[in-house]
Amino acid sequence: MDLDLRKLRYFATVAEHRHFGRAAKQLYITQPVLSRQIRSLEQELGCTLFVRSTRSVELTAAGKQLYEEAQQILPSVTAAVGRVHDVGQGVQRLVVAFSPGLHVSDAIRAFASRHPDVETDVVPARWWEQDRPLRDGRAQVGYLRRPFDDAGLRIIPIGHEPRVACMPAAHPLACRQELTSADLDGERMLDIPKRRTSTLEEKFELIASGHGIALIPLSVARSYSRPDLAHLPVTDAPGIESCLAVAADRHEKLLRDFLEIATATLRQT
């Protein structure tokens, strides 16, 4: 059976929104058309992907598996089409993935000054799967924070940054100048395995709403400052390492040049 990529994109959009109406609006098609396409995909696969009710749309076990697969397949296909287009147009392109709060712009400017003929792009790396853009072909190099799955990757350490405790501004601890890990004993912590948020905005909204405290990198706190949140240093919390990452089997001169320039530039900043 050949998998229809258009139907797979439709499915992934519904899975993301958990709502046919919002998905149809994003896809610029009508809801009945979208429903027919999803039913057709379910018939082709021989399994139910969604449990529908008048109030909600939830993924079945098969739907959850397909959604995981789609999150790898669709970006890979998009990246492959882009690479083919670039080759056809004679364009050299370097794409850099970056973790939230890490700024790679200085390195890109330094690289562009020496390689003005190379197009450079950036792609955000989601904090729970930072290595994904390197593995699905969307990026050739990443400016990331540990920990992540570094199997098959070459890692160049850049530096360390401290963690801070992010909490509601009205929290009793928010008036302190600094904290230790012991100060957080008994506090409700937003634990990654238990409640994974899809965006930092969602994470901070949960914190501001009183759902818990989170330890976050200092650069993230500075990049996403908001008045209803407080960020306090945790003096005995281990620092977080930032690094450049590239597939171990990639040795193109363009990549070597970028890594050399980026390593020097980012370590300075």
UniProtKB/TrEMBL annotation:
* Keywords for the protein's UniProt record, in alphabetical order: DNA-binding, Transcription, Transcription regulation
Keyword presence, Transcription regulation: yes
Q: Name one Pfam family in it.
A: LysR_substrate
An example molecular function term from Gene Ontology annotations: DNA-binding transcription factor activity
Show the InterPro entries listed in the entry. LysR_HTH_N, LysR_subst-bd, WH-like_DNA-bd_sf, WH_DNA-bd_sf
Question: Which positions fall inside the HTH lysR-type domain?
Answer: 3-60
Q: Output the Gene3D superfamilies linked to this UniProt entry.
A: Periplasmic binding protein-like II, Winged helix-like DNA-binding domain superfamily/Winged helix DNA-binding domain
A GO cellular component annotated for this chain's UniProt record is: protein-DNA complex
Name the family the entry cites: Belongs to the LysR transcriptional regulatory family.
**What's the protein name?**
Transcriptional regulator
Q: What is the lineage of its organism?
A: Bacteria, Bacillati, Actinomycetota, Actinomycetes, Kitasatosporales
